[in-house]
Design a protein that fits this description.
Elements (H helix, E strand, L loop, with lengths): L10 H11 L16 E5 L4 E6 L2 E8 L2 E10 L9 E4 L5 E7 L2 E6 L6 E6 L14 H15 L3 H4 L3 H8 L9 H12 L8 E4 L2 E4 L10 H14 L4 E3 L4 E6 L3 E6 L11 H15 L2 H4 L7 E5 L8 H8 L7 E8 L13 E5 L11 E5 L6 H8 L8 E4 L9 E5 L5 E5 L1 E4 L15 E2 L5 H5 L4 H12 L4
Parallel strand pairs: 13-14, 14-17, 17-18, 18-22
Antiparallel strand pairs: 1-2, 1-8, 2-3, 3-4, 4-5, 5-6, 6-7, 7-8, 9-10, 9-20, 11-12, 12-13, 15-16, 15-21, 19-20
Length: 466
Protein backbone atom coordinates (compact mmCIF):
# COMPACT_ATOMS: atom_id res chain seq x y z
CA UNK A 1 0.00 0.00 0.00
CA UNK A 2 2.83 2.38 0.62
CA UNK A 3 4.78 4.72 -1.59
CA UNK A 4 8.04 3.84 -3.25
CA UNK A 5 10.79 3.35 -0.72
CA UNK A 6 13.75 5.67 -0.94
CA UNK A 7 16.81 3.57 -1.74
CA UNK A 8 19.07 6.31 -0.51
CA UNK A 9 20.52 3.62 0.29
CA UNK A 10 22.30 0.59 1.21
CA UNK A 11 20.38 -2.63 1.32
CA UNK A 12 20.38 -2.10 5.07
CA UNK A 13 18.84 1.36 4.88
CA UNK A 14 16.22 0.31 2.35
CA UNK A 15 15.29 -2.74 4.37
CA UNK A 16 15.13 -0.75 7.57
CA UNK A 17 12.72 1.65 5.90
CA UNK A 18 10.59 -1.28 4.78
CA UNK A 19 10.61 -2.72 8.29
CA UNK A 20 9.43 0.59 9.71
CA UNK A 21 6.72 0.75 7.06
CA UNK A 22 5.31 -2.63 8.11
CA UNK A 23 5.41 -1.97 11.84
CA UNK A 24 1.68 -1.07 12.04
CA UNK A 25 2.13 2.30 13.72
CA UNK A 26 -0.44 3.73 16.08
CA UNK A 27 -2.58 6.08 14.01
CA UNK A 28 -4.38 9.25 14.95
CA UNK A 29 -8.08 8.49 14.72
CA UNK A 30 -10.69 11.15 14.14
CA UNK A 31 -13.40 9.24 16.05
CA UNK A 32 -15.94 10.68 13.62
CA UNK A 33 -17.76 8.88 10.83
CA UNK A 34 -16.48 9.72 7.34
CA UNK A 35 -17.99 9.34 3.84
CA UNK A 36 -15.59 6.45 3.18
CA UNK A 37 -16.28 4.36 6.26
CA UNK A 38 -16.67 0.67 5.44
CA UNK A 39 -14.63 -2.16 3.97
CA UNK A 40 -12.82 -1.72 0.66
CA UNK A 41 -10.70 -4.02 -1.50
CA UNK A 42 -8.00 -2.54 -3.71
CA UNK A 43 -7.85 -3.26 -7.45
CA UNK A 44 -4.42 -4.87 -7.37
CA UNK A 45 -2.07 -4.37 -4.42
CA UNK A 46 -3.63 -7.31 -2.50
CA UNK A 47 -4.98 -5.14 0.29
CA UNK A 48 -8.25 -4.81 2.19
CA UNK A 49 -9.03 -1.56 4.01
CA UNK A 50 -11.38 -1.36 6.96
CA UNK A 51 -12.38 2.23 7.79
CA UNK A 52 -14.47 2.90 10.87
CA UNK A 53 -15.10 6.40 12.23
CA UNK A 54 -11.95 7.76 10.66
CA UNK A 55 -9.63 4.92 11.63
CA UNK A 56 -8.16 2.90 8.78
CA UNK A 57 -6.72 -0.58 9.19
CA UNK A 58 -4.99 -2.16 6.24
CA UNK A 59 -4.86 -5.93 5.77
CA UNK A 60 -2.39 -7.66 3.45
CA UNK A 61 -4.06 -10.59 1.73
CA UNK A 62 -3.20 -13.69 -0.25
CA UNK A 63 -5.27 -16.79 -0.99
CA UNK A 64 -3.81 -18.33 2.17
CA UNK A 65 -3.51 -15.38 4.55
CA UNK A 66 -4.79 -12.05 5.79
CA UNK A 67 -2.52 -10.07 8.09
CA UNK A 68 -3.20 -6.68 9.69
CA UNK A 69 -0.41 -4.43 8.44
CA UNK A 70 -0.93 -0.75 9.26
CA UNK A 71 -3.29 1.77 10.77
CA UNK A 72 -3.91 5.41 9.93
CA UNK A 73 -6.17 8.09 11.30
CA UNK A 74 -8.25 10.67 9.45
CA UNK A 75 -6.68 14.10 9.74
CA UNK A 76 -8.32 17.39 8.93
CA UNK A 77 -11.77 18.11 7.47
CA UNK A 78 -13.32 16.21 4.59
CA UNK A 79 -12.06 17.79 1.37
CA UNK A 80 -13.51 18.32 -2.07
CA UNK A 81 -15.31 15.35 -3.64
CA UNK A 82 -15.60 13.90 -0.14
CA UNK A 83 -11.88 13.17 0.03
CA UNK A 84 -10.63 12.01 3.41
CA UNK A 85 -6.93 12.24 4.24
CA UNK A 86 -5.48 9.58 6.54
CA UNK A 87 -2.03 9.94 8.08
CA UNK A 88 0.01 7.27 9.81
CA UNK A 89 2.76 7.83 12.34
CA UNK A 90 5.40 7.68 9.59
CA UNK A 91 3.81 10.79 8.08
CA UNK A 92 2.53 9.03 4.96
CA UNK A 93 -0.72 10.56 3.73
CA UNK A 94 -3.36 8.32 2.12
CA UNK A 95 -6.34 10.05 0.49
CA UNK A 96 -9.59 8.15 -0.09
CA UNK A 97 -12.83 9.19 -1.78
CA UNK A 98 -15.84 7.43 -3.23
CA UNK A 99 -17.74 7.63 -6.51
CA UNK A 100 -20.93 5.65 -6.06
CA UNK A 101 -20.04 2.01 -5.33
CA UNK A 102 -16.45 2.59 -6.37
CA UNK A 103 -13.69 4.21 -4.40
CA UNK A 104 -10.32 5.76 -5.17
CA UNK A 105 -7.07 6.09 -3.26
CA UNK A 106 -3.85 8.03 -3.67
CA UNK A 107 -0.67 8.03 -1.62
CA UNK A 108 1.33 11.23 -1.42
CA UNK A 109 4.59 10.76 -3.30
CA UNK A 110 3.29 7.87 -5.42
CA UNK A 111 1.88 8.71 -8.85
CA UNK A 112 -1.50 7.53 -10.05
CA UNK A 113 -4.89 6.67 -8.54
CA UNK A 114 -5.69 3.23 -7.15
CA UNK A 115 -9.15 1.75 -7.52
CA UNK A 116 -11.27 0.47 -4.62
CA UNK A 117 -14.40 -1.62 -4.59
CA UNK A 118 -16.87 -1.86 -1.73
CA UNK A 119 -16.80 -5.16 0.16
CA UNK A 120 -19.62 -6.31 2.43
CA UNK A 121 -17.32 -7.38 5.25
CA UNK A 122 -13.78 -8.40 6.03
CA UNK A 123 -12.87 -11.73 4.44
CA UNK A 124 -13.26 -14.58 6.94
CA UNK A 125 -9.52 -15.26 6.92
CA UNK A 126 -8.95 -11.70 8.21
CA UNK A 127 -10.87 -12.49 11.39
CA UNK A 128 -8.79 -15.47 12.44
CA UNK A 129 -5.08 -15.77 13.18
CA UNK A 130 -2.65 -17.04 10.59
CA UNK A 131 -0.30 -19.81 11.81
CA UNK A 132 3.23 -18.55 12.53
CA UNK A 133 5.21 -21.75 11.98
CA UNK A 134 7.89 -21.95 9.25
CA UNK A 135 5.61 -23.70 6.78
CA UNK A 136 2.93 -21.01 7.02
CA UNK A 137 5.61 -18.33 6.68
CA UNK A 138 6.96 -20.01 3.55
CA UNK A 139 3.46 -20.33 2.08
CA UNK A 140 2.58 -16.67 2.57
CA UNK A 141 5.91 -15.56 1.08
CA UNK A 142 5.58 -17.80 -1.98
CA UNK A 143 1.90 -16.98 -2.47
CA UNK A 144 2.44 -13.21 -2.33
CA UNK A 145 4.98 -13.44 -5.14
CA UNK A 146 2.80 -15.86 -7.13
CA UNK A 147 -0.17 -13.48 -6.99
CA UNK A 148 1.58 -10.14 -7.47
CA UNK A 149 5.03 -10.35 -9.10
CA UNK A 150 4.79 -9.46 -12.82
CA UNK A 151 8.21 -10.44 -14.15
CA UNK A 152 8.73 -14.19 -13.71
CA UNK A 153 8.58 -14.86 -17.45
CA UNK A 154 10.89 -11.97 -18.27
CA UNK A 155 13.37 -13.17 -15.65
CA UNK A 156 13.14 -16.81 -16.80
CA UNK A 157 12.01 -18.03 -13.37
CA UNK A 158 9.43 -20.82 -12.97
CA UNK A 159 7.88 -19.90 -9.61
CA UNK A 160 5.91 -23.14 -9.38
CA UNK A 161 9.16 -25.05 -9.79
CA UNK A 162 10.68 -22.90 -7.05
CA UNK A 163 7.94 -24.06 -4.69
CA UNK A 164 8.40 -27.70 -5.65
CA UNK A 165 12.11 -27.42 -4.92
CA UNK A 166 12.05 -25.52 -1.65
CA UNK A 167 8.73 -26.30 0.09
CA UNK A 168 9.79 -29.88 1.04
CA UNK A 169 12.85 -28.39 2.76
CA UNK A 170 10.66 -26.52 5.27
CA UNK A 171 9.26 -28.28 8.31
CA UNK A 172 7.80 -27.25 11.64
CA UNK A 173 11.32 -27.46 13.07
CA UNK A 174 13.13 -25.40 10.42
CA UNK A 175 15.27 -22.79 12.15
CA UNK A 176 14.93 -19.10 11.43
CA UNK A 177 18.39 -18.94 9.89
CA UNK A 178 17.64 -21.82 7.57
CA UNK A 179 14.21 -20.47 6.58
CA UNK A 180 15.67 -17.05 5.81
CA UNK A 181 18.36 -18.68 3.68
CA UNK A 182 15.70 -20.61 1.74
CA UNK A 183 13.57 -17.52 1.08
CA UNK A 184 16.65 -15.61 0.02
CA UNK A 185 17.69 -18.37 -2.38
CA UNK A 186 14.21 -18.24 -3.91
CA UNK A 187 14.38 -14.56 -4.88
CA UNK A 188 18.09 -14.26 -5.61
CA UNK A 189 17.75 -15.39 -9.28
CA UNK A 190 15.33 -12.52 -9.92
CA UNK A 191 18.20 -10.00 -9.50
CA UNK A 192 15.50 -7.50 -8.61
CA UNK A 193 16.46 -4.56 -6.38
CA UNK A 194 12.80 -4.12 -5.44
CA UNK A 195 12.62 -7.55 -3.81
CA UNK A 196 13.90 -7.81 -0.24
CA UNK A 197 13.57 -9.78 2.98
CA UNK A 198 14.07 -8.58 6.56
CA UNK A 199 14.46 -11.50 8.93
CA UNK A 200 15.57 -11.28 12.57
CA UNK A 201 17.48 -8.08 11.97
CA UNK A 202 19.22 -9.36 8.85
CA UNK A 203 18.59 -7.87 5.42
CA UNK A 204 18.58 -9.82 2.16
CA UNK A 205 18.77 -7.72 -0.99
CA UNK A 206 19.75 -8.37 -4.61
CA UNK A 207 20.62 -6.09 -7.53
CA UNK A 208 21.33 -6.59 -11.20
CA UNK A 209 24.75 -8.26 -11.66
CA UNK A 210 27.53 -5.91 -12.62
CA UNK A 211 25.97 -2.88 -10.94
CA UNK A 212 26.65 -1.03 -7.70
CA UNK A 213 24.06 -0.12 -5.09
CA UNK A 214 23.98 3.65 -4.47
CA UNK A 215 24.99 3.58 -0.80
CA UNK A 216 25.72 6.78 1.16
CA UNK A 217 29.44 5.97 1.17
CA UNK A 218 29.51 5.35 -2.57
CA UNK A 219 27.51 8.51 -3.23
CA UNK A 220 29.90 10.58 -1.10
CA UNK A 221 32.93 9.09 -2.86
CA UNK A 222 31.57 9.84 -6.34
CA UNK A 223 30.40 13.28 -5.37
CA UNK A 224 33.88 14.15 -4.09
CA UNK A 225 35.37 12.84 -7.34
CA UNK A 226 33.05 15.03 -9.41
CA UNK A 227 33.68 18.11 -7.28
CA UNK A 228 37.44 17.67 -7.65
CA UNK A 229 37.62 16.50 -11.25
CA UNK A 230 34.64 18.13 -13.01
CA UNK A 231 33.33 21.16 -11.12
CA UNK A 232 32.87 22.58 -7.62
CA UNK A 233 29.32 21.96 -6.39
CA UNK A 234 26.76 23.99 -4.51
CA UNK A 235 24.56 21.75 -2.33
CA UNK A 236 20.83 21.93 -1.71
CA UNK A 237 18.23 19.75 0.01
CA UNK A 238 20.60 18.29 2.59
CA UNK A 239 23.14 17.55 -0.11
CA UNK A 240 20.79 15.37 -2.14
CA UNK A 241 20.82 17.92 -4.98
CA UNK A 242 23.86 19.85 -6.23
CA UNK A 243 24.33 22.45 -8.93
CA UNK A 244 27.17 24.18 -10.78
CA UNK A 245 27.44 26.66 -13.62
CA UNK A 246 29.90 25.37 -16.21
CA UNK A 247 31.95 27.28 -18.77
CA UNK A 248 30.24 28.05 -22.05
CA UNK A 249 26.83 28.76 -20.54
CA UNK A 250 26.13 25.17 -19.49
CA UNK A 251 24.57 24.02 -16.22
CA UNK A 252 25.19 20.85 -14.20
CA UNK A 253 22.45 19.45 -11.93
CA UNK A 254 23.27 16.38 -9.83
CA UNK A 255 20.36 14.55 -8.17
CA UNK A 256 21.24 11.67 -5.83
CA UNK A 257 17.68 10.87 -4.78
CA UNK A 258 14.05 11.92 -4.83
CA UNK A 259 13.59 12.21 -1.09
CA UNK A 260 15.50 12.83 2.11
CA UNK A 261 15.52 16.56 1.42
CA UNK A 262 14.45 17.45 4.97
CA UNK A 263 14.78 16.02 8.46
CA UNK A 264 11.01 15.54 8.51
CA UNK A 265 11.25 13.58 5.24
CA UNK A 266 7.53 13.64 4.47
CA UNK A 267 6.35 14.17 0.94
CA UNK A 268 4.97 17.62 1.74
CA UNK A 269 8.20 18.78 3.41
CA UNK A 270 10.37 17.34 0.65
CA UNK A 271 8.22 18.90 -2.07
CA UNK A 272 8.48 22.33 -0.45
CA UNK A 273 12.25 22.01 -0.13
CA UNK A 274 12.53 20.81 -3.72
CA UNK A 275 10.58 23.83 -4.93
CA UNK A 276 12.94 26.12 -3.04
CA UNK A 277 15.91 24.33 -4.58
CA UNK A 278 14.54 24.56 -8.11
CA UNK A 279 13.75 28.22 -7.63
CA UNK A 280 17.39 28.78 -6.64
CA UNK A 281 18.74 26.77 -9.58
CA UNK A 282 16.31 27.42 -12.43
CA UNK A 283 16.20 31.17 -12.00
CA UNK A 284 14.72 33.54 -14.58
CA UNK A 285 18.26 34.43 -15.62
CA UNK A 286 19.15 30.78 -16.29
CA UNK A 287 15.88 29.94 -18.07
CA UNK A 288 15.22 32.88 -20.39
CA UNK A 289 16.82 35.80 -22.14
CA UNK A 290 20.43 36.36 -23.17
CA UNK A 291 21.85 34.73 -20.01
CA UNK A 292 19.79 31.52 -20.33
CA UNK A 293 21.63 28.21 -20.10
CA UNK A 294 22.78 26.90 -23.46
CA UNK A 295 22.49 23.33 -22.20
CA UNK A 296 21.84 21.43 -18.97
CA UNK A 297 23.51 18.23 -17.76
CA UNK A 298 21.37 16.24 -15.32
CA UNK A 299 23.42 13.61 -13.50
CA UNK A 300 21.52 10.60 -12.13
CA UNK A 301 24.40 8.14 -12.21
CA UNK A 302 24.24 7.63 -8.43
CA UNK A 303 20.57 8.00 -7.59
CA UNK A 304 18.82 5.81 -5.04
CA UNK A 305 15.25 6.65 -5.98
CA UNK A 306 12.41 7.85 -3.77
CA UNK A 307 9.20 9.60 -4.76
CA UNK A 308 8.00 9.48 -8.37
CA UNK A 309 5.95 12.61 -7.70
CA UNK A 310 9.09 14.55 -6.83
CA UNK A 311 10.60 13.39 -10.11
CA UNK A 312 7.57 14.72 -11.98
CA UNK A 313 7.91 17.95 -10.04
CA UNK A 314 11.39 18.41 -11.48
CA UNK A 315 10.22 17.38 -14.95
CA UNK A 316 7.58 20.12 -14.78
CA UNK A 317 10.40 22.69 -14.55
CA UNK A 318 11.97 21.31 -17.72
CA UNK A 319 9.14 21.69 -20.23
CA UNK A 320 7.01 24.39 -21.81
CA UNK A 321 4.27 22.01 -22.90
CA UNK A 322 2.31 19.19 -21.28
CA UNK A 323 3.05 15.61 -22.32
CA UNK A 324 2.68 12.04 -21.06
CA UNK A 325 5.54 10.83 -18.88
CA UNK A 326 4.51 7.17 -18.88
CA UNK A 327 1.53 4.94 -18.15
CA UNK A 328 1.30 2.96 -14.95
CA UNK A 329 -0.52 -0.31 -14.37
CA UNK A 330 -0.60 -2.92 -11.60
CA UNK A 331 -1.00 -6.67 -11.71
CA UNK A 332 -4.52 -7.42 -10.47
CA UNK A 333 -5.25 -11.06 -11.32
CA UNK A 334 -3.74 -13.52 -8.82
CA UNK A 335 -4.20 -16.38 -11.27
CA UNK A 336 -2.81 -14.67 -14.37
CA UNK A 337 0.63 -12.99 -14.42
CA UNK A 338 -0.47 -11.13 -17.55
CA UNK A 339 -3.56 -9.65 -15.87
CA UNK A 340 -3.20 -5.92 -15.19
CA UNK A 341 -5.35 -2.87 -14.58
CA UNK A 342 -5.89 -0.52 -17.49
CA UNK A 343 -2.76 1.60 -18.01
CA UNK A 344 -3.14 5.00 -16.36
CA UNK A 345 -1.40 7.86 -18.19
CA UNK A 346 0.74 10.07 -15.96
CA UNK A 347 1.22 13.59 -17.26
CA UNK A 348 3.94 16.21 -16.98
CA UNK A 349 2.58 19.75 -16.93
CA UNK A 350 4.66 22.94 -17.06
CA UNK A 351 5.14 24.46 -13.63
CA UNK A 352 3.85 27.89 -12.71
CA UNK A 353 7.46 28.98 -12.26
CA UNK A 354 10.50 29.56 -14.48
CA UNK A 355 11.04 26.52 -16.69
CA UNK A 356 14.10 25.44 -18.66
CA UNK A 357 13.24 24.49 -22.27
CA UNK A 358 16.68 23.98 -23.75
CA UNK A 359 18.85 20.95 -24.55
CA UNK A 360 19.41 18.35 -21.84
CA UNK A 361 22.03 15.63 -21.51
CA UNK A 362 20.96 12.98 -19.01
CA UNK A 363 23.68 10.88 -17.36
CA UNK A 364 22.61 7.40 -16.15
CA UNK A 365 24.11 4.11 -15.06
CA UNK A 366 23.51 0.94 -13.10
CA UNK A 367 23.32 2.95 -9.88
CA UNK A 368 20.35 4.90 -11.27
CA UNK A 369 17.60 3.13 -9.34
CA UNK A 370 13.82 3.19 -8.93
CA UNK A 371 12.45 6.77 -9.01
CA UNK A 372 15.71 7.77 -10.69
CA UNK A 373 14.55 5.52 -13.52
CA UNK A 374 10.95 6.70 -13.63
CA UNK A 375 12.32 10.26 -13.82
CA UNK A 376 14.56 9.19 -16.71
CA UNK A 377 11.52 7.65 -18.40
CA UNK A 378 9.47 10.78 -17.70
CA UNK A 379 11.92 12.84 -19.78
CA UNK A 380 12.02 10.52 -22.79
CA UNK A 381 9.16 12.33 -24.58
CA UNK A 382 10.22 15.79 -23.52
CA UNK A 383 10.88 18.25 -26.33
CA UNK A 384 13.66 18.73 -27.17
CA UNK A 385 14.38 15.12 -26.37
CA UNK A 386 17.22 14.63 -23.86
CA UNK A 387 20.27 12.66 -24.93
CA UNK A 388 20.99 9.83 -22.48
CA UNK A 389 24.69 9.20 -21.89
CA UNK A 390 26.35 6.47 -19.81
CA UNK A 391 25.00 2.98 -19.15
CA UNK A 392 21.71 1.16 -18.56
CA UNK A 393 19.78 2.05 -15.44
CA UNK A 394 19.19 -0.60 -12.74
CA UNK A 395 15.84 -1.87 -14.12
CA UNK A 396 13.33 -1.46 -11.24
CA UNK A 397 10.41 0.96 -11.58
CA UNK A 398 7.44 -0.23 -9.51
CA UNK A 399 6.44 1.02 -6.09
CA UNK A 400 7.42 -1.61 -3.55
CA UNK A 401 4.51 -3.68 -2.24
CA UNK A 402 5.66 -4.09 1.34
CA UNK A 403 4.38 -7.18 3.12
CA UNK A 404 4.50 -8.86 6.52
CA UNK A 405 5.02 -12.52 7.28
CA UNK A 406 3.18 -14.47 10.01
CA UNK A 407 6.37 -14.86 12.09
CA UNK A 408 6.95 -11.09 12.19
CA UNK A 409 9.43 -10.82 9.32
CA UNK A 410 8.91 -8.36 6.47
CA UNK A 411 9.52 -8.45 2.74
CA UNK A 412 8.85 -6.42 -0.37
CA UNK A 413 8.23 -6.98 -4.06
CA UNK A 414 7.19 -5.00 -7.14
CA UNK A 415 3.73 -5.38 -8.67
CA UNK A 416 3.55 -2.53 -11.21
CA UNK A 417 4.77 -1.69 -14.69
CA UNK A 418 5.69 1.74 -16.03
CA UNK A 419 5.02 1.74 -19.77
CA UNK A 420 6.23 3.90 -22.63
CA UNK A 421 3.72 5.22 -25.17
CA UNK A 422 4.47 2.11 -27.24
CA UNK A 423 3.71 -0.20 -24.32
CA UNK A 424 7.30 -1.10 -23.49
CA UNK A 425 8.62 -1.67 -19.98
CA UNK A 426 12.31 -1.43 -19.05
CA UNK A 427 12.10 -3.63 -15.95
CA UNK A 428 15.06 -5.97 -15.84
CA UNK A 429 17.62 -4.54 -18.25
CA UNK A 430 16.89 -0.90 -17.43
CA UNK A 431 16.72 2.10 -19.76
CA UNK A 432 19.62 2.04 -22.21
CA UNK A 433 21.66 5.15 -23.06
CA UNK A 434 21.74 6.77 -26.47
CA UNK A 435 25.52 7.13 -26.12
CA UNK A 436 27.27 4.42 -24.14
CA UNK A 437 30.29 5.36 -22.05
CA UNK A 438 32.02 3.96 -18.95
CA UNK A 439 30.38 5.03 -15.69
CA UNK A 440 32.65 5.30 -12.64
CA UNK A 441 34.60 2.16 -13.46
CA UNK A 442 37.72 1.42 -11.44
CA UNK A 443 39.83 2.45 -14.42
CA UNK A 444 37.99 5.75 -14.87
CA UNK A 445 38.30 6.64 -11.20
CA UNK A 446 41.94 5.60 -10.97
CA UNK A 447 42.88 7.59 -14.06
CA UNK A 448 40.77 10.62 -13.20
CA UNK A 449 38.48 10.23 -16.19
CA UNK A 450 34.76 10.98 -16.41
CA UNK A 451 33.82 9.98 -19.93
CA UNK A 452 30.07 10.53 -19.59
CA UNK A 453 30.48 14.05 -18.20
CA UNK A 454 33.02 15.01 -20.85
CA UNK A 455 30.83 13.63 -23.63
CA UNK A 456 27.86 15.61 -22.35
CA UNK A 457 29.84 18.85 -22.22
CA UNK A 458 31.15 18.31 -25.73
CA UNK A 459 27.71 17.42 -27.08
CA UNK A 460 25.91 20.38 -25.53
CA UNK A 461 28.66 22.78 -26.51
CA UNK A 462 28.53 21.57 -30.10
CA UNK A 463 24.76 22.01 -30.47
CA UNK A 464 24.36 24.94 -28.12
CA UNK A 465 21.04 26.63 -28.74
CA UNK A 466 18.86 28.70 -26.49
Amino acid sequence: MRRKIVLRATATAAAATLAAATAAPQARAADTATPVDGVWTTDGYATVLSIDHGRMTGYETTAVSCLPAFTAGATGPVGSEGRVAFTDDDGDVIRVWRDGPRGHLTIDGSVGVRGLRRTAALPARCTRPTPKDPRATFDVFWQAFAENYPFFAAKGVDWDAVRRRYRPQVTADTTGDRLAAILDEMIAPLHDAHTMLIADGRRYFHIRPGTTLPSPDYDARIKAFIAKRDTPLRDFAQGRISYADLPGGLGYLRISGFGGYTDEDTYAANAAELDRTLDAVLTPARTSGPTALRGLIIDLRVNGGGSDELGLRIASRLTGRPYTAYAKRVRNDPENPAGFTRPQPIRVRPADAPVYRGPVALLTGGSTVSAGETFTQALMDRSPRPVRIGANTQGVFSDILDRKLPNGWAFGLPDEEFLTRTGRTFDGPGIPPDIRTPVFTDAELAEGRDSAFDRAVALLSGRAVR
